[in-house]
Amino acid sequence: SSSRRELRNVVARRRWFSATKQSPRFTMNNYALRSARESESRQIKELIRAVGINPMGLDSKRFIVAVDAKDRVIGTGQLKPHGADLLELSSIAVAPAHRGEGIARAVIERLLKDGPRPLYLTCISTMGLMYEKFGFVRLEYANMPRYFQRLSKVANVMLNFTREGEYLLVMKLQ
Asked: What predicted TM-score, i.e. pTM, was given to this entire model?
């Protein structure tokens, strides 16, 4: 029967992940979270580009990925350093076919679980409410670290031409 086949598939996937010591967390939506492998750099870059976010600073060693049952990367996130004392929650991306399955939330929660504080993030202004649910607060320009002040100036000039009415939001989690 199909339910027995599904159960065998779940057991086989768990055994495989257990053997690779990746400690996946399968969900009802049939994806697992784990540290990215160096061999997945290309998949990560392709997903980041496909969703239209910043493709700079993509080091697979810093990524958590969500993978489907066929071990394809369907979601990403990283903690990206900016110098010695700034860390940014970054590269949160989910394949369009898998949106609405809780993947972004799961990736963010995993990264926040052990992430140091303070932690910063940048996003388009329309995404601010999503990150507020995780405890991030919006920063006024004067309260931003110098790196994010410079970034927001440049990004907002570009956004004026590409996304009318939107701006770069810089947020912080204590």
From this structure: 0.80
